Each structure stands twice: as C-alpha cells, then as structure tokens.
Amino acid sequence: MYRVSEFAEKAGVTVRTLHHYDRLGLLKPSGRTESGYRLYGERDFARLQQIVTLKFIGLPLRQIKDLLDQSDLDLASTLRLQRRLLQEKRMQLEAAIQAIEEAERSLKSSRAPDLAALKKIIEVMERQTAMEWTKKYYSEEAQEKIAERAKTFTPEMQAKVTQDWNDLIRDIESAISSHEDPSSDKARKLAERWSSFARGFTGGDPEVQKGLNKLYADPGGWPASFKKPWSDDVEAFIKKAMAGHKTSCT
C-alpha cells in the first residue's frame, strides 16, 4: 500500500489529480491510515491505467466512471474495450490524415486551396465526432462487430453508401409526391432497396440490428444537432411498404 504522494510518483500522475479523481468517485483509495491519509494498492494501479487510457481516447470523466463502475466489467473486459476504442481512434485518425494529404496534393498542383478537398476534411472530422452518441444504444459485442466492419470501409465506399441512401430517399419522396400506393410493386422494390442498404450496415447481425432498433425507437435521446436523413413521411411510407410486403429491414 502506498500513500498518495508515493502512489502519484510511481504512477506518473500528480497528487492533485488523485485528489480530483477521489472527489469524483472515479478512483477511491483502497484504504486509509489511522490518521486518515489515503492508501493505494495494486488494484488502484489497474483502475488508474483504465482511466488514463479512456481519457486519452477522449471519453469524459463522468462516462469513464459509469463505464468502470459496471459490476460485470472485469480487467480483461476493460482491456478489450480499450483496445477496440483505440483501434477506432486509429481508423479515424488515418481517415483524417488521408483527407489532409489529398488537400496538400491539390494545393501543390494548383497553388490555390481546393474547396472540395477542404470540404472533405471537414466532413471526415464531423462524421467521426457527430455519431459518437449512438454508441450508447449498442452492446459491447455489437460495437466490436461494427468496428470490425468499419475497417473494410474506405472513404470512397462510404461516399457511395451515402449517395445510395440519398438516391433511395429521393426516389421514395418522388413516390410519395406522386401518391404511390405503399402496397404497389414499385413500393415493394423501394422497401427491398431499403432493407438491402440496412443490411449493409448491420451485416444481417441480430445484435447490431437490436442496437439500431433501439436508436430509432428513441428520438428523444438524440442530440439536437442530429437530424434524420429522411422525413417522417418517408419513414411512414417505407414502414407501410415493408408491412404490406412483409419485408424485413434486417
């Protein structure tokens, strides 16, 4: 067991940091001396390592506390979680670096900023941060599967997926404006395209689909900055088309 100053020195953090984590309930000392001084042990080293890694990844301290306080989360589980989050962060950084390198190349060739290249940098950064909130709807297993699938996605593939969804939404809006019957053959084909695109994200995995269903069942939990890419009318139409043709979105 170590007193706070000894523990801080061995762990490479400040005493002030340890006091702060104690006040937050994030890292409580394992014991106290008879005089009331904090005492830290090996378990506290493990807890501190988890805190430092998750903080480095970008998680806020409140979220770190909630995560580490889960009774079913042992050290092996938290290490696996840390590895996955770091892999996700690495992929995000690689995508951002690639976008910046493209902007640098265009600048060298034209001596003027390529607005399209600069826009791509913004889109990459915004896309990576804008959807962090969705993770709360997915289990750890589902998040791992999503991360694995994301490794195979290039920026070009992501752009095509986005374009495919935009084209489908536009086609559904056109069907609505022309008063297309949701039970028609045309509506059936639209529903099949929707289901196919959804499977492109879920991979047909029921655990991922479960999280996706939770997300769309909780619009009240979405941040104000997030807007669905389709209207309520589009959603109502496609639900009727799926129900009429017994098309599953999984």
Layout of helices and strands, plus pairs?
Elements: E1 2-3, H1 4-11, H2 15-24, E2 31-32, E3 38-40, H3 42-57, H4 61-68, H5 75-110, H6 115-130, H7 140-150, H8 155-177, H9 185-202, H10 206-216, H11 232-245
Question: Which short descriptors sum up this protein?
Answer:
250 residues; mainly alpha; Multidrug-efflux Transporter Regulator, Chain: A, Domain 2; 3 domains; 3-stranded antiparallel β-sheet; 11 helices
Walk me through what this model shows:
This protein is an all-alpha fold and 250 residues long. It has 3 domains: 2-68, Orthogonal Bundle (Multidrug-efflux Transporter Regulator, Chain: A, Domain 2), CATH 1.10.1660; 80-130; 136-145 and 152-250, no CATH class. It is built from 11 helices and 3 strands; from the N terminus they run βααββααααααααα. The protein has helices at 4-11, 15-24, 42-57, 61-68, 75-110, 115-130, 140-150, 155-177, 185-202, 206-216, 232-245; strands at 2-3, 31-32, 38-40. Strand 2 and strand 3 (38-40) form a beta hairpin. Helix 3 (42-57) packs parallel to helix 5, helix 8 (155-177) runs antiparallel to helix 9 and helix 8 (155-177) packs across helix 11 (232-245).
